[in-house]
Design a protein that fits this description.
The protein is built from eleven helices and no strands. α2 packs antiparallel against α3, α2 runs parallel beside α4 and α3 packs antiparallel against α4. It is mainly alpha-helical. The protein is globular and about 50 Å long.
């Protein structure tokens, strides 16, 4: 962060703070994650760059959720969701994927499915097998968690093939574990 602060480029600092926030959330330090995300959000709002605001909202919502501030988390996610209405946002796919995964993590399987199905329409443009595998895996998890076991089995077979083609052994193992 010190290095990013020394460079006169607010985008670099925004990205560094975002990475710090994610790392702190993963390391189970949501207070530090919230602090970094809040600074990143303030910075991105001052730059008036929607995709940067969206990234900051997502990491801040994650930290607020881990801190048990569900109302604040929901408010941030609603604001983040409003940013995905514009195709001008180059992060629309990432934002929607994040919102879908977040909804699934908090038990909103119907909402998660709707959001992730929206992500499918961007895949032909993105031409990313990795993104396709992630979204289709999330949808398979939703089917399993919803009790649609036959559909989940079929989806897992398809996603395993995608992960095999990518060569991601851990993801293949995870798909097998889940089913």
């Amino acid at each position: 962060i010190a290095l990013a602060r020394s460079i006169p480029d607010p985008i670099t600092l925004h990205m560094a703070l975002g990475i710090l926030s994610v790392a702190c959330n993963i390391l189970n330090d949501p207070k530090a994650a919230k602090e970094a995300a809040q600074e990143s959000l303030t910075l991105s709002r001052s730059m008036r760059i929607d995709w940067a605001v969206g990234m900051s909202l997502g990491t801040l919502a994650w930290a607020e959720g881990k801190l048990g501030n569900d109302e604040r988390r929901s408010t941030l996610l609603r604001e983040l969701s409003a940013l995905t209405n514009s195709l001008e946002n180059p992060m629309i796919f990432d934002t929607q994927m994040l919102l879908g995964m977040e909804a699934r993590a908090y038990g909103d399987l119907v909402g998660a499915k709707l959001i992730l199905e929206q992500c499918l329409k961007y895949l032909p443009v993105l031409r990313s097998v990795s993104f396709e595998a992630i979204v289709r895996s999330e949808l398979a998890h939703i089917q399993r968690e919803s009790g649609e076991l036959a559909a989940a089995r079929e989806a897992y077979c398809q996603t395993m093939q995608l992960w095999i083609n990518i060569g991601h052994r851990a993801a293949i193992a995870h798909q097998l574990e889940c089913f």
